[in-house]
Design brief:
mainly alpha; 9 helices; 2 strands
Length: 151
């Protein structure tokens, strides 16, 4: 007998199964995340003179501060013009995506950070995610949400 599995559970389970990215086979998405994010900090891959690392949480919770900092790096479209405003509507244009206000409310709660993960998922993440990378991005500790909601 087939069991009806909710779509979000199917998607979450897919993150913890083998996958291929750029001809590399990974046992799960956590290990792929390590390689991808590690490359962001590799100066031979991304020159610090030409690239910056911005967490999506910073764009969400500190949009103007991020844009002001990016303008300091010489982004011409941000210099001297009108200060851009974050999109309030659903960015992807479909009903499944949160509005900005919904996202701010949802992601401000630490309990929502892992609410869609099973205990097995959390165990795999704890085992496989690179702790040094988590610390560099302030995704470690008891309440990482504080690193993006606090000013």
């Amino acid at each position: 007998e087939l069991e009806d599995v909710p779509e979000n559970k199917k998607v979450m389970d897919d993150l913890f199964r083998p996958l291929e990215h750029d001809t590399v086979l990974y046992p799960n998405a956590a290990l792929m995340w390590n390689d991808v994010v590690r490359s962001y900090f590799d100066d031979s891959v991304y020159s610090p003179r030409q690239a910056v690392i911005v967490r999506c949480e910073d764009f969400l919770f500190h949009f103007h501060e991020v844009m002001d900092e990016l303008a300091k790096f010489g982004l011409e479209e941000l210099k001297g013009g009108e200060r851009p405003e974050p999109l309030a509507d659903r960015a992807k244009g479909h009903y499944e995506c949160r509005t900005r206000d919904q996202a701010l409310n949802f992601y401000a709660s630490d309990s929502n950070r892992t609410s869609d993960f099973t205990p097995e998922h959390l165990g795999i993440a704890a085992r496989d995610l690179d702790r040094e990378l988590l610390a560099r991005l302030s995704y470690h500790g008891k309440n990482p949400v504080a690193s993006w909601t606090d000013g």
